[in-house]
């Protein structure tokens, strides 16, 4: 029974990572109606930047917050420089840009930082497991960090006028312009925020899975499965979906399919959702009367 | 006329969609604090004119707003100068609540009177206050039109562009909305450019009217005169 509880808690901890990346995917999806395949690679790059700062001697939390800022700027620049010129282009152009970005960032990261797997420090140090072996300090700490980020993002979108303007720009750019919202900047801000959220996920998962240029590849798949499960157009649903996938993946890996086939769980979820319920479990239903 | 301050001066306005030219050089004026009606049949270019004014389509010609040239400016910057546009289809943020639509109307304002303006809108549109926390997409057509007008007025605009506020609404609701528009004109001093297919209704409210036919202005004059002119009514307004 203790083993089961441990698997459950470990699932919630990784679920928090998936939930963060799923949220980043959904934020961009809502604004552009495209899934940013390079979201994971952007997070890996951020994590390498964090490692560089830590190795240069910066205290962990200084490096953490500096990485958030740098990632935000990189995300916003990607929107301004790469996405803006193609914003009215067909879907395939976007797919091309995303895949191009994925390959370029992944290879550039390997070229600059090396392809070898590196250890990444955790700020939550302790010997052994807490609460009678149920949970490690890092699992507990990283879950707290991802939850804090998710709550902050929720508060930002629900209760600030900038958050409201970003939602308005995503739902209805034409009307947003008519009330004076600078939609282009809202998009850049959204990309920046998504990149910053992704960087948190990267820094929190790296101590557990180790850092290499392909670190986020599998995580992006789980996150995508979570986003689809919860509803790709519903941020809260995607977060819930991310946690659900984390738990499912861990339990299935431990008791059903074994760790080697864990990634299959994500693919099964993706295909299952697309076939059975394309809008996801909590897909947004918009009422509209004319 | 030369002495009154012009809110909007349009000269030789051309515009269209892609290679298709819809407006073939039109001229018109909107005076401060007055209602100007732009009338014409379906496809005459009324909606296109409003879109051109707001920089939503490719545009050539002179558009002077309070003496400042706004041709080619970005839509959001034109809005920030004080031009509020209630577009065709009303432009409601369907997924958001009535309250959030209100807050978006006042998004660019930094003055401390937003709450007072909310209260004024509740007085003009009591139904919107009842629907405050409801998703805007669940409102009836009339309520959505009211919400669109309220959202536009919350920008505290100097010029209000209204695209067919009567479209698709029951006659009683239309009466209610035009009643409120009369109040808006008296109490807020905003200049209104009103696009309507329902010419009779528009001419009752307007001070001046322009008649648009296939992208050109065919006649214009004080609304009262146009109402009385049998020939114009028969030829262009169809009643």
Poorly predicted segments of chain A:
none
Sheet with the most strands, sense and barrel status of chain A:
2 strands, antiparallel
Strand order of the largest sheet of chain B: 6-7-8-3-9-10
Distance between the termini of chain A: 56 Å
Number of helices of chain B: 10
Distance between the first and last residues' Cα of chain B? 30 Å
CATH class call of chain B: Alpha Beta
Helical amount among residues of chain B, as a percent range? 25-40%
Strand content of chain A: under 5%
Work out the helicity level of chain A: over 70%
Q: Total number of β-strand segments of chain A?
A: 2
Low-confidence runs of chain B (pLDDT<50, min 5 residues)? Answer: none
What is the gyration radius of chain A calculated from CA atoms?
19 Å
Task: Give an overview of the whole structure.
- The complex is a heterodimer of chains A (290) and B (239).
- Chain A is mainly α.
- Chain A has one domain.
- Chain A is 74% helix and 1% strand.
- In chain A, strands 1-2 form a two-stranded antiparallel sheet.
- In chain A, strand 1 and strand 2 form a beta hairpin.
- In chain A, helix 5 packs antiparallel against helix 8.
- The longest helix of chain A has 31 residues.
- Chain A is globular.
- The mean pLDDT of chain A is 89.
- With 239 residues, chain B is of the alpha/beta class.
- Chain B has a single domain, classed as 3-Layer(aba) Sandwich (Rossmann fold).
- Chain B has 10 helices and 10 strands.
- In chain B, strands 6-7-8-3-9-10 form a 6-stranded mixed sheet, sandwiched between helices. Chain B has a 4-stranded antiparallel sheet with strand order 2-1-4-5, covered by helices on one side.
- In chain B, helix 7 links the parallel strand 7 and strand 8.
- In chain B, helix 3 runs parallel beside helix 6.
- Chain B starts with 5 loop residues before the first strand and ends with a helix.
- The chains are: A mainly alpha (290), B alpha/beta (239).
- Chains A and B meet through helix 6 and helix 7 of A and helix 2, helix 3 and helix 6 of B.
């Amino acid at each position: 029974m203790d083993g089961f509880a441990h698997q459950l808690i470990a699932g919630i901890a990784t679920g928090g990572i998936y939930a963060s990346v799923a949220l980043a995917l959904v934020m961009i999806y809502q604004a552009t109606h495209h899934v940013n395949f390079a979201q994971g690679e952007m997070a890996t790059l951020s994590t390498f930047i964090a490692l560089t700062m830590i190795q240069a001697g910066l205290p962990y939390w200084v490096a953490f917050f500096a990485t958030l800022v740098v990632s935000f700027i990189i995300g916003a620049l990607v929107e301004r420089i790469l996405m803006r010129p193609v914003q009215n282009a067909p879907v395939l152009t976007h797919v091309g840009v995303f895949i191009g970005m994925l390959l370029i960032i992944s290879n550039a990261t390997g070229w600059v930082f090396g392809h070898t797997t590196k250890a990444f420090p955790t700020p939550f140090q302790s010997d052994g497991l807490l609460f009678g072996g149920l949970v490690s300090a890092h699992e507990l700490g990283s879950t707290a960090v991802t939850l804090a980020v998710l709550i902050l993002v929720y508060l930002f979108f629900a209760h600030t006028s900038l958050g409201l303007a970003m939602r308005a720009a995503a739902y209805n750019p034409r009307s947003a312009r008519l009330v004076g919202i600078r939609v282009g900047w809202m998009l850049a801000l959204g990309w920046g925020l998504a990149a910053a959220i992704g960087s948190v996920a990267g820094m929190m998962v790296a101590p557990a899975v180790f850092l290499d240029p392909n670190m986020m590849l599998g995580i992006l798949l789980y996150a995508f499965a979570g986003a689809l499960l919860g509803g790709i157009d519903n941020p809260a649903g995607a977060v819930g979906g991310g946690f659900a996938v984390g738990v499912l993946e861990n339990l299935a890996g431990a008791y059903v399919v074994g760790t080697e086939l864990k990634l299959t769980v994500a693919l099964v979820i993706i295909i299952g959702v697309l076939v059975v319920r394309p809008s996801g479990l909590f897909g947004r239903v918009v009422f509209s009367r004319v | 006329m030369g002495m009154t301050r012009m809110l909007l001066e349009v000269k030789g306005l051309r515009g269209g969609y892609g290679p298709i030219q819809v407006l073939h050089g039109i001229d018109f004026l909107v005076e401060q604090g007055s209602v100007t009606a732009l009338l014409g049949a379906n496809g005459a270019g009324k909606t296109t004119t409003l879109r051109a004014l707001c920089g939503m389509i490719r545009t050539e010609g002179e558009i002077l707003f309070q003496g400042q040239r706004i041709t080619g400016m970005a839509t959001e910057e034109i809005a920030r100068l004080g031009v509020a546009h209630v577009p065709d289809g009303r432009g409601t943020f369907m997924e958001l609540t009535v309250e959030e639509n209100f807050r978006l109307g006042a998004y660019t304002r930094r003055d401390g009177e937003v709450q007072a303006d909310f209260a004024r809108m509740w007085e003009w549109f009591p139904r919107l206050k009842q629907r405050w926390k409801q998703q805007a997409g669940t409102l009836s057509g009339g309520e959505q039109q009211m919400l669109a007008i309220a959202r536009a007025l919350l920008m505290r605009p100097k010029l209000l562009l209204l695209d067919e506020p009567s479209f698709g609404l029951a006659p009683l609701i239309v009466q209610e909305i035009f009643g409120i528009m009369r109040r808006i004109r008296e109490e807020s001093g905003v200049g209104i450019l009103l696009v309507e297919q329902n010419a009779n209704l528009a001419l009752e409210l307007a001070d001046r009217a322009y008649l648009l036919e296939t992208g050109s202005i065919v006649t214009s004059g004080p609304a009262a005169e146009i109402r009385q002119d049998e020939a114009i009514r028969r030829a262009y307004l169809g009643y």
